[in-house]
Amino acid sequence: MGMYVGRGRKARRCYGLDEIALVPGSVTINPNDVDIVWELRGRKFEIPIIAAAMDGVVDKKFAIEMGKMGGFAVLNLEGIQTRYRNPDDVYTRISESDNESTTQLLQEIYQKEIDENLIGERISEIKKSGAIAAVSTIPQNAEKFGKIAQDAGVDIFVVQSTVTTTKHISSEYKSLDFEKFCKSMKVPVIVGNSVTFKTALALMETGIDALLIGIGPGAACTTRGVLGIGVPQVTATADSAAARNRYYVKTGRYVPIITDGGMSAGGDICKAFASGADAVMVGSSFAKATEAPGKGFHWGMATPHANLPRGTRIYVGTCGSLEQILYGPAEMDDGSQNLIGALRTSMGSVGAMNIKEMQITEIIIAPAIKTEGKLLQKVQRVGMGK
Description:
Elements: E1 3-6, E2 9-11, E3 20-22, E4 38-40, E5 43-45, E6 49-51, H1 60-68, E7 72-76, H2 80-83, H3 88-96, H4 99-109, H5 116-128, E8 134-137, H6 142-151, E9 156-160, H7 178-184, E10 189-194, H8 197-204, E11 210-213, H9 223-226, H10 233-251, E12 257-260, H11 266-274, E13 279-282, H12 284-287, E14 297-299, E15 313-315, H13 322-327, H14 339-350, H15 355-358, E16 363-365, H16 375-380
Parallel strand pairs: 6-7, 6-13, 7-8, 8-9, 9-10, 10-11, 11-12, 12-13
Antiparallel strand pairs: 1-2, 3-16, 4-5, 14-15
Helix pairs in contact: 1-5, 5-6, 8-10, 11-14
């Protein structure tokens, strides 16, 4: 499979969200009648959209609001919320810094040691509101932080790194045994990120409860430029969904696929589901919410790396409330608001009654999908021309 890029060297053609389109169905459905519920280890969620574990997006207040909207937000245990008891001043420093000094400032801010007492406190604060408490950490801290989080009553635990595999070689630290870790946790464990069929299958075999898909597509992520790695989200999701389906046929256990990153509008989210996702994880769209702590700024999780930053601070602005972004009414013309309404309408248009039917809707390769007939929008910088 693939085509030659040089003598004796082949490369496979892969596809991103901007390169495909969904084909309308022969039967259409009232958007209010479609079912968008998804399930994680027996627990059902009203909306299949998760807020990403990024400091510019999620703090305890945002997590509580996201819970009220029928979903959940993931709090980053490696971030500002667990390094600083009163993080508001830190957010102000980040928002007021200039572009030339931001990377150095972030590196400085994230040098402060994590206060393990704050892990339990943040979880308790979210739990007291009745919202889902979901947290994220890197594999090296998963065992230690997992025990603390579980004792504090966490509902969902996420283990996340730039590239996650079942076999990690290091002479400096002990690698995480995912199978052993999943058995030790009494709550659902979501793991990521990966982009290939083989890795997805291997991770599912360790006992994880869901898998995050995406390396480098995030709005604030620079991994693809810095390291040159990544697979476009349509192909990454489709390949991983194929692994999910094979694993289900083999074992009878269904492991949801969560497309993570690269989606800035409702149409992108719809395409992710059509590519095989069970849920999506979103960052930059939620960073625009009035409830987001980043004050209109967004930065990637990998930004604070001391020697090789793989994220940057970007200005996304503040466009409306979290409720507007999820449910409308939309005041923007670019698809960045009323994401749930967009998903429901798209599902109705392709004739998908639920997420599983959306996963098998017809997809076409259509690189002109966002440009065909849109010259005036592009010239005037409105709608799809922004």
